[in-house]
Amino acid sequence: MPPLTPPSAPGAPSSPSTPTIDLNADLGEGFGRWALTDDDALLDVVTSANVACGFHAGDPATMRRVCERAAERGVAIGAQVSYRDLAGFGRRAMDVPADELAAEVAYQVGALDVFARAAGSRVAYVKPHGALYNRAVRDEEQAAAVVEGVRLASTASGDPLPVLGLPGSALHRAAAGAGFVTVAEAFADRAYRPDGTLVPRTEPGAVVHDPDEVVARSVAVATGGGVVAADGTTLTLAAGSLCVHGDTPGAAALAARVRAALDEAGVDVRSFV
């Protein structure tokens, strides 16, 4: 994979003395009576909400509720699109034909946009979830299919939608090639390989559980410091958005600590849209 590159969307430092970053979390990850994320508490902290669109989690009532509450708080709404995999929470590897995947991405974005617009907002960006996110880092065909889905959704809505993802990924190359804005994402609570990709969740240490370490990593990313990779090397992650996973135990309290630390460090925390 090519070296990490800075984001091409707003979110980079606004001046040499004022670092700026977006704080995002995955929300709406429930179904029926089952709820995984503390949406209300997270919406009080984050500036962008990656809302599950029904394929890995989420249902119409949940999508509507999260969109309404995000709109009330002025939080940007993003469509978190996934493989069709409710049973596996979108984290199982799947082989989906490109034309089918493009249609499913557009379908998910469109479904969420109905509720976002009804709430007085709109879907403002797209971010893949789980196995699709990781597959689109290297798989040019699947990445192109995701971008085609974004194109279809953008054509229908009239709004070109930025694509949030890993810098230097096949997804970002495809999105940039199609004329879409790309936003580089870093993860506060995930371990990195030395090439800037994420350590797979199937491997030990893939998720950072120590709250102090998560907070320190977050401030380091936002202020241009280094993050230690799994092999001990130091990575500099030029990111426009920082993700705290909503399904991590205690995610809301952890996100609040991250936000407080960023504020204390003089970071301007705001959405990239």
From TrEMBL:
Its Enzyme Commission number(s) read 3.5.2.9
Q: Return the Pro residues bias intervals.
A: 1-10
Region annotated Disordered sits at 1-23
Catalytic reaction(s) noted: 5-oxo-L-proline + ATP + 2 H2O = L-glutamate + ADP + phosphate + H(+)
Name the GO terms of the biological process aspect. carbohydrate metabolic process
Q: Which InterPro entries match?
A: Glyco_hydro/deAcase_b/a-brl, LamB/YcsF/PxpA-like
Keywords attached to this entry:
ATP-binding, Hydrolase, Nucleotide-binding
A molecular function annotated in GO for this UniProt entry is:
ATP binding
**Compositionally biased residues, Low complexity:** 11-20
Function field? Catalyzes the cleavage of 5-oxoproline to form L-glutamate coupled to the hydrolysis of ATP to ADP and inorganic phosphate.
Q: What does the subunit section of this Swiss-Prot or TrEMBL entry state?
A: Forms a complex composed of PxpA, PxpB and PxpC.
- Identify its protein family: Belongs to the LamB/PxpA family.
| Name of the protein in question | 5-oxoprolinase subunit A
Say which species the protein is native to.
Sediminihabitans luteus
